[in-house]
Specification:
512 residues; alpha/beta; eight-stranded mixed sheet; five-stranded parallel sheet; 18% helix; 21% strand
């Protein structure tokens, strides 16, 4: 398939005609006429797209396949945008998956009550999670479905539920940068994952599968590790071997979640939780999660409790379930539904951005892994403290130390008052998720270990993400650009985004 792109706008329309970077002309000079010119010594140039009316499209889930004759078949179903009335304190009821090609409530609605958290989420996440729930297909239609769609898979056995989940396409804005050179470098390195167009990164054609086996004792589960056959990787196998129908001694429901390093906090967040939340509509009163790797960190166990699950006890190479075993290892690595649903389940309730008073510095002093230290941390702290004192808004700089909170449930309320998260790339930086929308997120990205995972997650949560790209010395250590950091803080601390960083993606360029 070939893709037609409309011609790019000339430079005088608010972006570079050469690489599409926000707010700069070809010479690297700011050309954003919407903003007042700031003194060069005081304010860094903020890279932003030109303002424009946000386009609202009906969300379509599409499955495109090639038939044997090479013709293209396109099947579209418009998604329901009703927001489910959920009660996160109660176990969701089971879902009826018998009706084919019906968009399920994902997770299922609870008609009894409406928890006040949803009003807070609608305000603080600036999105409606039901707009991002996947379209679910439970019955094979060979006239248009690919043979690898879950309902069409030939899996030996009876009473196996096979579901294909089609996730809505989305796009997120590229980061803000303190100079044009950082933007050029970032776009070059970031081309490994999304497709970029007009200062947006597009995420298209994402699918998931839920395969629910009946109760019994099973072997042949995928193992953890950074290889192609583990969960969330391309060659993971759904072919489990049912040793017998006796599932006693295990649990009612077992979810297989053996993703790479899923025992660790960071990789449980970006992989394990996605598998679990995708399988959530099939939960029963006793649902447990199976890892093949070593026992998880205590924070992982706490998140499992927040998701109404617990760890399946290790007992050799088999698992037993009296009701069902769920294979959801084919789940998207990045999608708004999975990120937002996690915040719902963990009761993340941030204050409005103008009421938050904490600037949180996430350093490397207490890290298990050495390296990526900021060599001039003391000077950076001194300058930030001076800035906060001059602002006279009762704002405080805090060095983040996760050991000060006995549990994640104790830590999350603290983040409700965090207005900014600053620091070098590292595992503790994942905690920016608990701070809510509009949070100023400034990541020191070492060029020797380039990563964009925090850009993706922060943008999905409508946080104000800045990528500060830095050269490194030995062990990936860095020198922070103190003046630029202080100027960004002064201008954007405690201020809401003037436009969302997350939108639905639709390929046709249709005006209102």
């Amino acid at each position: 398939l070939t893709r037609h792109h409309p011609p790019r706008a000339p430079p005088d329309q608010g972006r570079s005609s050469s690489i599409g970077l926000r707010g700069f002309d070809k010479s690297g000079n700011p050309n954003d006429s919407r903003r007042e010119a700031a003194p060069q010594k005081q304010k860094p140039t903020m890279v932003r797209p030109p303002l424009g009316g946000r386009r609202h499209f009906s969300m379509l889930a599409a499955a495109v396949i090639l038939s044997s004759s090479g013709s293209i078949l396109l099947m579209m179903s418009q998604l329901d945008k009703s927001f489910p009335d959920l009660d996160v304190d109660q176990q969701p009821p089971p879902v009826d998956f018998k009706r084919p090609d019906k968009k399920q409530e994902y997770p299922p609605a609870n008609p009894k009550s409406k928890h006040p958290i949803y009003e807070l989420l609608a305000d603080n996440l600036r999105t409606n999670i039901s707009n991002w729930s996947p379209l679910v297909y439970s019955t094979c239609d060979a006239s248009w479905m690919p043979e690898l769609f879950a309902p069409c898979l030939d899996i030996p056995g009876e009473n196996i539920v096979k579901q294909e989940l089609v996730y809505p396409d989305f796009r997120i804005r590229i980061p803000h940068f303190v100079n044009n050179q950082d933007g050029q470098y970032w776009l070059k390195e970031a081309a490994i994952r999304p497709q970029f167009e007009d200062n947006w990164g597009m995420y298209k054609g994402q699918y998931g599968q839920n395969i629910v086996y009946p109760g019994g004792t099973y072997t042949g589960m995928p193992t953890s590790g950074w290889h192609e056959s583990s969960c969330m990787n391309s060659k993971v196998s759904h072919q489990l071997k049912r040793e017998n129908a006796d599932g006693g001694g295990g649990a009612e429901t077992v979810v297989i979640a053996s993703a790479p390093d899923v025992h660790s906090f960071q990789h449980f967040l970006d992989r394990g939780t996605h598998i679990i939340l995708q399988s959530e509509p099939h939960f029963t009163n006793d649902t447990r999660v199976w890892f093949s790797s070593r026992l998880p960190q205590s924070t992982v166990k706490q998140i499992l409790e927040g998701l109404s699950t617990q760890l399946y006890p290790h007992a050799g190479g088999s698992i037993s379930a009296s009701k069902q075993v769920i294979f959801s290892c084919r789940a998207p690595l990045i999608h708004p539904y999975l990120s937002l649903r996690l915040l719902e389940r963990l009761h993340v309730r941030p204050l409005p951005i103008r009421e938050r008073k904490i600037v949180l510095y996430v350093g490397r002093k207490n890290s298990r892994n050495k390296g990526r230290n900021v060599r001039n941390e003391d000077l950076l702290f001194e300058r930030i403290r001076h800035l906060l004192a001059t602002r006279m808004k009762n704002e405080t700089l805090v060095y983040f130390d996760h050991t000060e909170w006995p549990t994640l449930q104790d830590m999350i309320p603290y983040f409700s008052n965090v207005a900014a998260v600053i620091g070098p790339h590292g595992g503790s930086f994942f905690n920016h998720r608990w701070a809510g929308r509009d949070t100023l997120v400034m990541e020191f990205v070492p060029k020797s270990r380039f990563s964009m995972m925090f850009w993706e997650e922060a943008s999905i949560l409508n946080q104000n993400y800045w990528a500060i790209l830095l050269d490194t010395t030995g062990n990936h250590d860095m020198i922070a650009p103190v003046n630029e950091v202080v100027n960004v803080l002064d201008k954007h601390l405690g201020e809401p985004l003037d436009h969302p960083s997350l939108e639905h993606y639709y390929p046709w360029k249709i005006g209102k």
